[in-house]
Amino acid sequence: MSQAALREKKRYYRKNADFCNLVEKIKLWPSRSGKLHGIKSLTRRGDRAEIETHCNRRFIIYNSRHSRAARWLRNKWFISACPICKVPEWKLLKYSSTVMNQHYGAHL
Fold first, then answer.
1. What pLDDT digit, counting tens, does each position of 3-28 carry?
2. Fewer CB under 10 Å: which end of the chain, C or N?
3. Residues 38-55: what's their mean pLDDT?
4. Long-range contacts of residues 79-82, Cβ cutoff 8 Å, at least 24 apart
């Protein structure tokens, strides 16, 4: 697909979807420093999950819709992509064209 086609096609997800399902679907994680990491694996353990990124960093996350990372993912805030994870440009374009809506979109 060309970049123009990716920008035109919008994906809709529910804003209040389960946070772990959203992270598992998007496969991106914003760290506290503002870098956007690509996710290699996500392992659920009750109300927590362990994320392993492509740069072999591990994060323990809580299944919270109101967390910093949840807001950053919904609002598409990040400073830069991680140079070690090498998140492809098409994935960033797809992520930027995704719309989070309160009453419309896929139930993850």
1. 666 556 788 888 888 899 999 999 99
2. N
3. 95
4. 79/33, 79/34, 79/35, 80/34, 80/35, 80/36, 81/35, 81/36, 82/31, 82/35, 82/36, 82/37, 82/38, 82/53, 82/54, 82/55
Residue with tokens 């967390």: 67
Q: How far is the C-alpha of 66 from the C-alpha of 64, rounded, in Å?
A: 5
Place of tokens 């209040």: 16
104 has pLDDT over 80? no
Answer yes or no: are the C-beta atoms of 80 and 72 closer than 8 Å.
no
The pLDDT, as a whole number, for residue 4 is: 65
Q: What would the mean pLDDT of 42-66 be, rounded to a whole number? A: 93
Checking phi first, is residue 89 left (phi over 0); if not, alpha (psi -120 to 50) or beta? alpha
Output the CA–CA distances (angstroms, integers) from residue 31 to 2, 75, 102, 108, in the order listed. Answer: 29, 14, 25, 23
